[in-house]
Amino acid sequence: MSLTNTQYASIMRQYDDIRAANRHLQNERYNEVTAICPDIADIDLAIIDLSMKTARARIESDSSATNTDELSSNLKSLNNRKAAALASVGKPADYLDDIYTCPYCKDSGYVDGHRCICFKKKAIDLIYKDSNLKNITDNENFDTFSFDWYNNTDVDPATGLTPYNNMQKVLNVCHEFVDNFDSSFSNLLFIGQTGVGKTFLSNCIAKALMESCHSIIYLTAGEFFDSFKSDEYKSFGSSKFDTSFFIECDLLIIDDLGTERTSDYSFSNLFTVINERLLRRKSVIISSNLSMPDIETRYSQRVFSRIVSAYSILRIFGDDIRCMKKLSPVKKA
Predict the structure, then answer these.
(1) What pairs with residue 254 in β-bridges?
(2) Which domains does the chain have, with CATH numbers?
(3) Which of 86, 182, 314, 325 could join 91 via S-S bond, C-beta 3.0 to 4.6 A?
(4) How far apart are CA 204 and CA 226, in angstroms?
(5) Burial of 319 (0-12, 13-18, 19+ CB in 10 A)
(6) How high is the pLDDT of residue 52?
């Protein structure tokens, strides 16, 4: 995932703050134990001095192996004394070791020249349009999903399924999408009337993938198209999205396609993003109240062709859950 210079600097400042906080905690620990056992401070100074002598001995060509071995033995003895002193005040041997929030990159953000998983998590948080997606997914996720809102009586003539049976199949596809996200490439299109659970399912998937540190961008269709209106939207200072993220993120979710104002969208930008992500094998989830013929009419045959050929089209039907929740507030989900 690419980042603007401003975003990158913001993340690196987070690492500066983390290292400063950990150094402060380490100093507090040191002051705590040396106040109780002053010998620990003397041992520490001796360890530092001997460590420097050992390092010099190893790089000097005329140093004998016996001298180096003796220094190493003395250093080990000092470390054992320090551990015993810490144990005498009820602290573990590593109590005064350097403290790292991330043990992999040691709070540098990088492991062997590559961005650490903790860096990626910080980037994910930074590029969300706001914190609402995380707040939403606390309530809208696979654990809170309920079949109670889908009746098992009315049969859809087109599929021969009840809303309940249909949702069972749709939910299985969603779980497979998450389970196989890193090993196979797929895209989803949720279509159906308002309130049948399209956005809820998108949030379920987003929540599951966020927990495994995948980068996700969620936008309504209006937000997506607005981001291309002028160059000012590509500046992180003016907008919470750099449109390059639409190509780079692990999963792009475009919600309520078709609800944007006609004057706001650009067919070419939608096609470019969809097509480029197909070429890069990066997944997209789209939800829409439009029917497939309406999508073709509204967004051109080129967009329609890409969707038909590369997306699993999941039709959801049933009653408006939002209305039912207002009428039946006792239900949990």
Answers:
(1) 219, 286
(2) 5-111 (no CATH), 128-327 (3.40.50.300)
(3) 86
(4) 25
(5) middle
(6) 84
